[in-house]
Design brief:
Blueprint lengths: L1 H14 L3 H14 L10 H11 L3 H14 L4 H13 L4 H12 L6 H14 L2 H14 L4 H13 L3 H13 L4 H15 L1
């Protein structure tokens, strides 16, 4: 079919480094059969890679957004979209929202909870950041990044006891001494 020809031409163009031609053919394939998404031969995944490679992160985000709309339950697309939004220079709130949406594709994915916690912390929503770091440590009690996140957020909220408790758990899990010392100093300054 015309779709398959365009798809394979685009993939060949990508493989041979002819990015402009590859993008043109893959976009044509996507227009011909917009619901086609088989991970290894998806025009969406190849286009995202090409747009990132050519420095057009915004276009990569748009293609990934289209893929997310086509299948909102696609876990990899949700995570990929959120990570692309983060790298695209979007606002911290938009990044946090993208990770928040990715959580719903797999509630037990610790890494997405950690990414969401970091994003909410950067966006200044400490309550949402706390929720995500707590989710991460509930799912995986030995999540060092989760405990460090909880310590940072509790410290920023002025909850010294919760911050020190989380820091203690992080220390038990082998947190870097320099990180622990730095966070303790921040807590001491916040209390003063």
């Amino acid at each position: 079919s015309c779709f398959m020809a365009r798809l394979h031409l685009g993939m060949l163009g990508q493989k041979s480094g002819r990015n402009e031609m590859a993008i043109r053919e893959l976009e044509a394939a996507r227009r011909l059969y917009p619901r086609y998404h088989v991970n290894e031969v998806s025009p969406y995944t190849h286009l995202v890679d090409l747009y990132v490679e050519t420095g057009d992160r915004q276009r990569a985000v748009e293609v990934m957004r289209d893929l997310r709309a086509m299948d909102p339950s696609d876990r990899e697309a949700a995570r990929g979209y959120a990570r692309l939004v983060r790298r695209s220079g979007a606002s911290a709130k938009d990044v946090a929202q993208a990770f928040h949406e990715a959580i719903w594709t797999d509630l037990f994915d610790v890494d997405v909870h950690l990414d969401a916690g970091d994003a909410w912390e950067t966006a200044g929503d400490l309550r949402a950041a706390w929720r995500e770091f707590c989710a991460a440590t509930t799912i995986r009690s030995r999540s060092l990044d989760g405990w460090l996140g909880r310590a940072r957020v509790a410290g920023a909220q002025g909850r010294k006891d919760a911050a020190l408790e989380a820091l203690g758990r992080a220390a038990q899990l082998g947190a870097d001494e320099a990180d622990i010392r730095r966070l303790r100093e921040q807590f001491a300054q916040a209390v003063e």
